[in-house]
Design a protein that fits this description.
The protein has 398 residues and is α/β, with parallel strands linked by helices. It has a single domain, classed as Thiolase/Chalcone synthase (Peroxisomal Thiolase, Chain A, domain 1, 3-Layer(aba) Sandwich), CATH 3.40.47.10. It contains 15 helices and 17 strands. The strands form 5 sheets. A 6-stranded mixed sheet has the order 10-17-16-11-12-14. A 4-stranded mixed sheet has the order 6-5-7-9, with helices on both faces. Helix 13 links the parallel strand 11 and strand 12. Helix 12 crosses helix 13. The radius of gyration is 20 Å and the shape is globular. The relative contact order is 0.17.
């Protein structure tokens, strides 16, 4: 993981369990101060890892993705598999947004002939996936889901399907975004999606499921997981955190930005994931919720979870601490599920004090708790009505 709380899965997970927040004030050109979670520069520095020339050929989102992927491969024990049988699936909402914004600025100020030749390849939505494949030498399938804030979860799900179908033996899967770009922030602000700075402490502005929530806090971040067929991983003595059991997806096929208020679409995705995992809803003890801190989004998600039979599970939302990393969120939250199962502890949902009166969820995690028995679900939803759900379980001995 590479987040506003720094880099390294164990360090980030520990900070979340301790209740630390990554959210602070950030100065953005033309917009003044905004609430955001920015990755510390030392955590985003790719020069030493990949060399200065290679790092310069990556947008910031791609650098975050490449760093997360490299760490994940080290954690997995760098599986000795033919590179042609190892692929990359990295989702993103905005890809190389900073590169495109810079290219537009150069065009306006200096003319078309001064726009850099790498503006387009560095700015594409598949740039993070391409950077992960290039820096790690992965020559298998290269996937780049662009399902907005569900992209990281869809990348993990589609990577799992690649392995199931025999198209790859292992996949590096996850998501990344670096959206602290003036035009991106201005667009979300105009849409009324962002929490606004006020008199409250800035770190309290992201309030998942809380009745005082007013919008999400924009954030940078990336996460990557190494997926491998179970028997192969056990045979080589790999370090296994959890088992990915099921994936489901759906589309609201409705409003461009607003979720269907009763959570029908997300409910379908959750049901599909449970069916894929051959699991019952009452076997799920833990939910890592999308929980953006938007009034409509949280309400629809709570109803969807209850509709799918998960209303009694322990529910936590990482965005209270990490902000919303957009295309990176689904991967971060799936990784947190895996670590919660492996470490036996669930981080708290920060800034949740008063749920809605009609909130159907019975067990919000407001302080760190022991991980419940059973399976875990990670939910992700995005603009355009995209919905995704992943089902994970604890690792079983060989």
């Amino acid at each position: 993981m590479v987040t506003g709380l720094g880099a390294g899965a164990e360090a980030v997970f520990g900070a979340l369990v301790a209740g630390r927040s990554a959210i602070s004030r950030a100065e953005v050109d033309g917009l003044g101060e905004v609430a955001a979670a920015r990755v510390p520069e030392e955590a985003a520095d790719a020069d030493e890892r990949f060399g200065r020339r290679a790092a310069r050929r990556m947008d910031r989102a791609s650098r975050l993705a490449a760093l997360a992927a490299d760490d994940a491969l080290v954690d997995a024990g760098a599986p000795d598999i033919d590179p042609g049988r190892v692929g990359a699936a990295i989702g993103s909402a905005h890809g190389g947004a900073a590169t495109i914004a810079l290219g537009q600025s150069v065009l306006e100020e200096r003319g078309a002939d001064r726009v850099g030749p790498l503006t387009i390849p560095l700015g594409l939505v598949n740039a993070p996936a391409a950077s992960v494949a290039r820096t790690s030498g992965l020559r298998g399938p290269s996937l780049a889901p662009a399902t907005a804030c569900a992209a990281g979860a869809d990348a993990i799900g589609q990577a799992m399907l690649c392995i199931r179908d025999g198209r790859a033996d292992a996949m590096v899967a996850g998501g990344a975004d670096a959206p602290l770009v003036p035009v991106v922030i201005a667009g979300y602000r105009s849409a009324g999606a962002l929490a606004q700075l006020g008199d409250s402490p800035v770190e309290a502005l992201s309030r998942p499921f809380d009745r005082l929530r007013s919008g999400f806090v924009i954030a940078e971040g990336a996460a990557a997981l190494v997926l491998e067929e179970r028997d192969h991983a056990i045979a080589r003595g790999a370090r296994v955190h959890a088992e990915l059991l099921g994936y489901g997806a759906s589309c609201d096929a409705g409003h461009l930005t607003d979720p269907e208020p009763e959570g029908l679409g997300p409910g379908i995705a959750i049901a599909n994931a449970l069916s894929d995992a051959r699991a019952r809803a009452d076997e799920v003890g833990l939910v890592s919720a999308h929980a953006t801190s938007t009034p409509a989004g949280d309400r629809a998600e709570a109803r969807a979870l209850a509709r799918a039979g998960l209303g009694a599970a322990a529910v936590f939302g990482a965005k209270g601490a990490l902000g919303h990393t957009l295309g990176g969120a689904g991967a971060l939250e799936a990784a947190l599920c895996a670590l919660a199962l492996a470490r036996g502890v669930v981080p708290p949902t920060l800034n949740l004090s008063s749920p809605d009166d009609d909130d159907p969820l019975e067990r919000h995690v407001r302080a760190a708790i022991d991980a419940p028995d059973g399976l875990a679900a990670s939910t992700s939803f995005g603009f355009g009505g995209a919905n995704a759900c992943l089902i994970l379980g604890p690792h079983r001995a060989a």
